[in-house]
UniProtKB/TrEMBL annotation:
Protein source organism: Alcaligenes phenolicus
UniProt xrefs under InterPro entries: Glyas_Bleomycin-R_OHBP_Dase, Glyas_Fos-R_dOase_dom, MMCE/EMCE_epimerase, RutC-like_sf, VOC_core, YjgF/YER057c/UK114
Name used for this protein in its record: Rid family hydrolase
Pfam families the record matches: Glyoxalase (PF00903), Ribonuc_L-PSP (PF01042)
Top-level taxon of origin: Bacteria
Length: 304
């Protein structure tokens, strides 16, 4: 059985980088245009002066896929904390003195969110950028937003964006109610709710009711814990998650004894199916919704 290929675990965007013909001129230009500040500069880096790889390739060929190169680079930070990296190659000579057009494979652009697009465009023109016509849509997913592309003196493509509302604005919620569990809406709640914008799943407290709404394990806290955890798994699966995505549990016990904590905690550990357990608060309470309910467990999870 082969292991599933998992998506890359990206924490955040670290930086964007592109190549310019003149590093000094580019640094000065982006300082004026963006208010960028240089953090450090490296080079000249000459491949001929560095060790070759085990396969016999020169350093820049092995690491940057550019044979026999000589280059410099600068790392800069924008006022909002975003980092940019600039490369300038003294050799080999570039195939073109301008950046790729948008239709060329490998072309890319960097988009900046602005509050006032008209003001930003006026500033771009003062800095000598080439500003293209504005894009705006009256309907569809980008309705209310405006977009305007521009290029720097070397043809690198950028975009300004003005939005009427943030992309991650709350878009509602999705209720999760597995058919195999009892109908919780009869009691005024859903088994779980997914927040669309944050991909967070909030699971209602699960008790030891089976699909017919009958209690499993009357008078037995350990049996009720087992059933409650199984119900949580059912809801997680319906929402598209698993115990591995749980970030928080809260466990309520009625009248438990210290001797029962060991077996109950063991069941909670088993619930995670080998994954490291999430945060959990275990609370002793006087009673739950009905007298025969002795265990209730609620959870929060993040969709994968």
């Amino acid at each position: 059985m082969t292991s599933p290929v998992l998506p890359l675990a990206i924490e955040q965007i670290d930086h964007a980088a592109w190549t310019v013909p003149d590093l000094d001129a580019a640094i000065a230009f982006y300082e004026r245009l963006f208010g960028a500040r240089q953090l450090y500069r490296l080079g000249p880096i000459n491949s001929a002066d560095l060790p070759r790889s085990a396969q016999g390739k020169d350093w820049t060929h092995a690491h940057l896929d550019v044979p026999d190169a000589k280059l410099e680079l600068a790392f800069m930070v924008l006022p909002n904390g975003f980092h940019i990296e600039l490369f300038s190659y003294a050799q080999p000579a570039s195939d073109t003195q301008k950046a790729l057009k948008s239709n060329h494979v490998g072309a890319h652009h960097l988009g900046f969110l602005v509050a006032d697009l008209d003001q930003a465009v006026a500033q771009l023109e003062q800095h000598g950028c080439t500003v293209l016509d504005r894009i705006a849509f009256d309907s569809g997913p980008t309705a209310g937003a405006q977009f305007q592309y521009f290029t720097d003196p070397w043809g690198n493509i950028f975009e300004l964006v003005q939005r009427s509302q943030p992309l991650n604005a709350p878009q509602g919620r999705e209720c999760v109610n597995p058919a195999s569990l009892y109908n919780s809406t009869n009691f005024g709640f859903s088994h779980a709710v997914v927040q669309d914008n944050s991909r967070t799943v909030h699971l209602a407290g699960q008790v030891a009711w089976n699909g017919e709404g009958q209690l499993v394990g009357a008078g037995d806290r350990i049996a009720q814990t087992r059933q409650a955890l199984q119900n949580l798994k059912t809801v997680l699966k319906e929402a598209g998650a698993s115990p591995r995505e749980v970030v928080r549990l809260r466990t309520y016990l009625v009248g438990h004894t210290p001797e029962e904590l060991g077996p109950i905690c063991a069941l909670i550990n088993e619930f995670y199916e080998g994954a490291e357990p999430a945060a959990n608060t275990l609370l002793g309470v006087a009673n739950l919704a009905l007298p025969d309910m002795l265990v209730e467990i609620e959870a929060t999870a993040r969709l994968p």
